[in-house]
Amino acid sequence: MTGESEAPCPAAEPVPAGSVAAVALGGCLALAAAMGIGRFVYTPILPFMVERLGLTQAEAGVIASANFLGYLLGALAAAKASLPGGRRRWFLFSLGISAATTAAMAIEASVPLFLFLRFASGVASAFVLVFASALVLDRLAAAGRPALSALHFAGVGVGIAGSAVLVAGLAAGGVGWRGLWLASGALALLALLAVLRLVPAEPEPPPAHRRAGRARPDPRLIALILAYGFFGFGYVITATFISTLVRLTPALQWLEPYVWLTVGLAGIPSVAVWGWVAKRIGNGRAFAVACLVESIGVAFSVLGEGAVAVLLAAALLGGTIMGITALGLVHARSLSTGDPRRSMALMTAAFGLGQMIGPSFAGFAYGIGQSFTLPTLVASAALLLAFFLTMEWRPPRSDRD
Length: 401
Known about the structure:
The chain has 15 helices and no strands. It has 401 residues and is mostly helical. It has one domain: Growth Hormone, Chain: A. Helix 3 runs antiparallel to helix 14 (340-369), helix 5 (111-142) packs antiparallel against helix 14 (340-369) and helix 9 (219-247) packs parallel to helix 12 (283-303).
């Protein structure tokens, strides 16, 4: 994530549609809609569904895993070079599917329907991440503005924070779980309409030149893909159940509206912060250190006591999720010798496999022990393994990172 040091400022004066800053802002809103809302709004809405529909934690975990299975298969499909149509068309279409499947969760209180809709939403979110990131990062690189990738990847934190405020505000006004899903889908649709203008249809720059020569993939890329899978497993248990964990603890129930908001707010500046770290120690090292920090935060969510401990765990989680995601994708792009979309899609697939396993494992483990402590500590260990897989103990080489 090396590049110029200029910090993006979403609150600055309006940027003309079609400019490189507008494209970065469009990417931000695309990830906010498909990832921050389409994928993660399930977390703050889940406690209301459990209370009103009587869902068990195992059922809640399986529904979450259906979304992650769709994410995995969507990433594998996005890796195919033979897909017809341009990248803009694919990610805009997928944004529409994400908004529609989010709103449709309000149709009927049926676990099979929930499974289908969350699966379809997962496919759509993977397509948005892969195609939008490939398009936006290429346009930023062609314009000589790679630092604006921080604005693009900040979208997930923006979406999480925005949806947390939306859910908390509507819930305080007495809106039920159906209304929360409908409002979330409407917010995602508004983001799509903005993206249509901010990311115009124009000739895409040719793919950046890649290093040629090696027939075998870089061993660091293989280790990074494996670590990305452990990251997917390691973050998702806490990300899925942290609101439920708070609701299940009587002394902490008052924190429920704030804990997911804390995750989102911490995520907004996280990409820029970890980008700053990467400039000093290299992308590979920064990725590893971020996994270590998240491992500590995940463990703290069940080992710490009191409101301060929970909010600190939420801040460490939110402050690393998108930092790790962005560092991983950008580092994979730098290690690729061919079309970077394939490497990015394989990364996303490994991530999807890890996060598909996590919620089901946690849900069933909770059913056995009536506690999230064991699965959460296993998740923390997975993140620690990701740290050791990717930590580069030698000084970073400038021509790589």
